[in-house]
Amino acid sequence: MTSLHDIPSVTYSADYQALANKYRPIFEQIAQGTVQREQQRILPFEQIQWLKQAGFGAVRIPVEHGGDGASIPQLFQLLIELSKADSNVTQALRGHFAFVEDRLNAQRDSDQSHWFKRFVAGEIAGNAWTEIGTVKIGDVITKVTHHGDQWLVSGQKYYTTGSIFAEWFDLFAQIEETGELVIAATRTQQEGVTIKDDWDGFGQRTTGSGTTTLVNARVEEVIPFDTRFKYQTAFYQLFHLATLTGIAQAAVEEFKQQVRQRTRIFSHGNGDRVDQDVQVLQVIGKASAQAYAAEAITIQAAQASQRAYQIHFAQDDTQAEKELNILAEIESAQGQVVIADLVLQLTSNLFNALSASAASSEKSLDRFWRNARTVSSHNPLIYKEKSIGDWEVNGTEPIYAWQIGGGSKETEQLSSS
């Protein structure tokens, strides 16, 4: 069994400081309206448009195709910074960057320059995988059918995160005539497509994660699902790690500012000023350390996916590629288990640095915990812990993708949740 210590260090094709300098002004602009959007549930259409215009959706596209040429760790470092500004925006882009990653991997075997041009021009994709209601595990209600020389798709998807902001769906479906599972690359703005902003979660409320209904919508390209990039589940999970890390950093920043500004003290406290109270400083210090650990773990886990990406192009060694994909999945799962606990703990314990005034709706300090709790509810931790343990003890290969639904478990598992 390959160990992560046996894999050479990751190399980067872009300069991170240059990337950060390009996008940080936009992140800072996005951050200015985060609380208002949170309080009034305003979707970040304008903010995502700023990112499109700046070329952020093409940050992973090679320089020779007009992108920034960022590595996977560099992408997720940027996403941590974006999540600190507004974690909802990062999650809204999750489906896009997964589709980009798939097209990057597909470039090894077929020309994907038509997609690269679209991404460089500012077009993005949204997620459209999950089905709800009476769907049984193993069933796919969304069907692609052939009408003359045109593919059409009909069905309904929920949790279509980011699609309301996007030009494309990364749409999981089944060819009705053959039963083949496919990705139907479908334009969002066309007759037969309805996207609703009806996500009712208590956190991550402005991610555009609503219901999409498709009735004979035209499909631009049908992509066999079995060609999907192999480390996709790890990649999807890295988004949650980066989002949680950004939430943690934003929470520490906000609470330390609140401590600096606070003038009222308790008679049984430890100083004449809150910013000199040793126990309050301890609360901030621990939270800061937890946020630091979350960032370090996220970037370490991202390196595992980078190695899986590199070997896909580097050599024709099926076993080595399989082992690196296993490590990418395991490391992302390990990161999830630890980071979720760290961030949920710190976003709750930070309230110990303040008093009852911290519960003010005007301050919206509860948003950090609510958003972290919502993100942490994706891909249940208990199953990740079991998967890691089964790999450690028995060498059992992890499940890379799955499905949620009713009925028995006797099926293939598929989901981007």
Q: What do these coordinates show?
A:
By secondary structure, this protein is α+β, with helices and mostly antiparallel strands. The protein has three domains: 4-124, Acyl-CoA dehydrogenase/oxidase, N-terminal domain (Butyryl-Coa Dehydrogenase, subunit A, domain 1, Orthogonal Bundle); 128-227, Butyryl-CoA Dehydrogenase, subunit A, domain 2, CATH 2.40.110; 232-394, Butyryl-CoA Dehydrogenase, subunit A, domain 3 (Up-down Bundle), CATH 1.20.140.10. The chain has helices at 16-31, 34-40, 45-54, 72-85, 87-92, 94-106, 113-120, 232-261, 278-314, 318-349, 367-376, 381-394, and strands spanning 125-128, 143-147, 150-157, 168-175, 181-187, 193-196, 211-224. A five-stranded mixed beta barrel has the order 2-3-7-5-4. A hairpin with a 5-residue loop joins β4 (168-175) and β5 (181-187). α4 runs antiparallel to α9 (278-314) and α10 crosses α12. Residues 1-10 have low confidence and may be disordered. Residues 28-101 form the Acyl-CoA dehydrogenase/oxidase N-terminal domain. Pfam families: Acyl-CoA_dh_2, Acyl-CoA_dh_N.
Terminal-residue CA separation: 28 Å
Number of contiguous helices? 12
CATH topology of the largest domain: Butyryl-CoA Dehydrogenase, subunit A, domain 3
Strand order of the largest sheet: 2-3-7-5-4
CATH H-level homologous superfamily name of the largest domain: Butyryl-CoA Dehydrogenase, subunit A, domain 3
Number of domains: 3
- What is the percent of helical residues? 40-55%
Shape: globular
Strand content: 5-15%
> What's the helix-strand series?
HHHHHHHEEEEEEEHHHHH
> Uncertain segments of ≥5 residues (pLDDT<50)?
1-10
Mean pLDDT: 92
- The counted number of beta strands is 7
Over all CA atoms, what is the radius of gyration?
Answer: 22 Å
Structural class: alpha+beta
| Major β-sheet annotation | 5 strands, mixed, barrel
Protein name: Monooxygenase
Domain Acyl-CoA dehydrogenase/oxidase N-terminal: 28-101
InterPro entries: Acyl-CoA_DH_C, Acyl-CoA_Oxase/DH_mid-dom_sf, AcylCo_DH-like_C, AcylCoA_DH/ox_N, AcylCoA_DH/ox_N_sf, AcylCoA_DH/oxidase_NM_dom_sf
Organism: Acinetobacter thutiue
